[in-house]
Amino acid sequence: MSTAPESAPGFEKHPDYRVDITASDRHVRVLAGDCVIADTRNALAVQESKHHPVWYLPLADVNTDLLTATETSTYCPFKGHASYWSIHTPQEELTDAVWSYQSPYSECLALQDYVGFYTDKVVMEIDGEREGTDGPGRSD
User: Fold this and answer.
1) Which residues contact 113 (CB under 8 A, 6 or more apart)?
2) Does domain 15-130 bear CATH number 2.170.150.40?
């Protein structure tokens, strides 16, 4: 018997905080060197209070053969516990370059089965253009 997702405790303490998740059909690709790590038209654009926008891509559209789970984990009181992966290509290893909320809080349940990428470690292309620092994808 599965249990319903918990509500995020962060919203109780900070009711004006926002995590807006919007489906997008833009063509999003993630590259590490010459390797395509992900390619999708089913991304989510996430705009969160006090953060730059971030693209989340469906895990189904990620080349998971290039990912290795790490011991790293973080916690967000609005989204939940995040797990991390490193990217391994023939040219390089990018440690903790990918994260996911595998069991997000109910308010961010749309993020389940999606991953984010640190754009200081990979190249993100949106509709064929390299992502700048002003649109979804920046990770700080």
Assistant:
1) 58, 59, 60, 100
2) yes
pTM value?
A: 0.89
SS3 of residue 84 by DSSP: strand
What is the token pair recorded at 67?
Answer: 């990912």
pLDDT tens column, 10-58: 999 999 999 999 999 999 999 999 999 999 999 999 999 989 999 999 9
Q: Please answer whether residues 135 and 126 qualify as being in contact, where contact means their C-beta atoms are separated by less than 8 angstroms.
A: yes
Q: Is the dihedral of CA 123, 127, 133, 135 positive or negative?
A: negative
Cβ 43 vs Cβ 54: under 8 Å: no
